[in-house]
Write a structure and sequence with these properties.
Blueprint (H helix, E strand, L loop, with lengths): L1 H17 L2 E6 L3 H10 L9 E5 L2 H14 L4 E5 L11 E4 L4 H9 L7 E4 L11 E5 L5 E6 H7 L5 H6 L1 E2 L2
Parallel strand pairs: 2-3, 2-4, 4-5, 5-6
Antiparallel strand pairs: 1-7, 1-8, 6-7
Length: 167
């Protein structure tokens, strides 16, 4: 058992060293995939706050899935300016450019924030997890490991081990 743990940690270390981002696939939609990833994060609160920036439709989708799946997240629909005043544990961007995402994350009230985007195809700056739907309907996501390290949120390594190098 200890050998397997060491092997997984070694693989994770190599992944972190050779890649700024990784790519993974899910058959769930973007909202379900986001909530699944969030469920693998370690939170300092019993009910983490997921702030959805400038998309009331996405807030409704998240709230519905949270209710159906019994996740313990609170969803708040906020504007970009609210991120400076509201304490969010995670943030979901759907219309914001990567450079604006980065600016908003840098100026957010909470510096330990996990971020998701559906409008950041390269995933080199801005959000930690960048999601999009493939033509076949699968949800794909990239992990920006630099952003993950800066967020200081512990995400279970199994999420990262599921990802494969996109290069």
């Amino acid at each position: 058992m200890a050998y397997l743990i060491k092997k997984r940690l070694f693989c994770l270390g190599i992944l972190l060293c050779i890649s700024n981002f990784s790519l993974a696939t899910s058959s769930h939609n973007i909202y379900a995939t986001t909530l699944s990833i969030l469920s693998y994060a370690k939170w300092n609160t019993a009910t983490p706050s997921l702030c959805v920036v400038d998309s009331s439709n996405s807030s409704v989708q998240f709230a519905s899935l949270i209710k159906q799946s019994n996740y313990s997240f609170q969803v708040d629909s906020i504007s970009q300016d609210d991120l400076k005043r509201k304490r969010c544990d995670a943030v979901f961007f759907s219309t914001t450019t990567p450079s604006i995402e980065q600016q908003l994350l840098n100026s957010s009230l909470n510096k330990t924030i996990l971020s998701f985007s559906t409008n950041n195809p390269e995933c080199e700056i801005g959000s930690t997890f960048c999601l999009h739907s493939s033509k076949s309907g699968n949800t794909l996501f990239k992990v920006n490991l630099d952003s993950l390290a800066r967020s200081k949120v512990h995400v279970d390594p199994r999420v990262l081990l599921l990802a494969r190098n996109s290069e």
